Amino acid sequence: MPEITLIAPGGIRAALQQLLPIFEQATGHKVAPTFASGGATKAKTVAGERFDVPVLQPPLVSVIASGNVDARSETPLATVSVVLAMRAGAAQPDISNAEGVKRLLLTVPSIACPNAAAGAACGVSFEATLTKLGITETVAPKIKPAPSGWEAIKMLARGEVELGITFESENDPDPDVAMLGALPREISTPTGFVAFVHARSPEPKAATALVQFLGSAAAAKIFRACGMTPGT
């Protein structure tokens, strides 16, 4: 059976690490995944690096315009929200509305967040939230960039910061960490993940089978278990 290559952002990694072995066992195909930041994943695809199945985050205009993906194969997989966390035992503020989030962000002295400058989609999304709240200049100096959401939560657990920012799908349970919940939609749009078949995939049938599996009801159960919302 031919090997299928896949590239995807870290925000969907936990789900794919469960899903790909299921696909491999069912089909006999071997999948070789590569994980990068959301920005890097898109940049590689637009630049022409060939992965049979790229999983990308909207907006997708540059991806479609590049001609490097089969637009007909576009398959929304899931969305994920940005969540906030504090040290266990700390007073947990109400973040159910924009004012509550703004008050918290202005109060905490330090924040760990995935590095937006390196293309981390969670960090990019959080920057957009700061802009909507009108507090970028005040909060930005407090941010300690992390290579991923996983690492942001580890920084929090180690006591290096008072607040951690991550995707809901990038979070291992930790007794030293208390999750506050997702940012309200009024200030934070969930990030989507969309799969394509590469326009020049040497294994288009196998790649199509993988994309169809990732968009299936069976896959949706695992996305949901990993803190994601299946579909669009």
Q: Give the CA-CA distance, first to last residue.
A: 32 Å
Give the rounded overall mean pLDDT: 96
- Note the total helix count: 9
Strand % is 15-25%
C-alpha Rg, in Å? Answer: 18 Å
Secondary-structure-derived class: alpha/beta
Give the CATH superfamily of the largest domain: Periplasmic binding protein-like II
Overall geometric form: elongated
Secondary-structure element order, N to C: EHEHEHEEHEHHEHEEEHHE
Strand line-up of the largest beta sheet: 2-1-3-10-4-11
CATH-defined topology of the largest domain: D-Maltodextrin-Binding Protein, domain 2
CATH architectural category of the largest domain:
3-Layer(aba) Sandwich
Helix coverage percent of residues? 25-40%
Walkthrough of the structure:
The structure is a single chain. This protein folds into 2 domains: 3-79 and 192-230, Periplasmic binding protein-like II (D-Maltodextrin-Binding Protein, domain 2, 3-Layer(aba) Sandwich), CATH 3.40.190.10; 82-182, Periplasmic binding protein-like II (D-Maltodextrin-Binding Protein, domain 2). It is 38% helix and 24% strand. The protein is an alpha/beta fold and 232 residues long. The chain contains 9 helices and 11 strands. It has helices spanning 13-27, 38-47, 61-66, 98-107, 121-133, 136-139, 149-157, 204-214, 217-225; strands at residues 3-9, 30-36, 53-56, 75-80, 82-87, 111-114, 143-146, 163-167, 177-182, 191-195, 229-230.
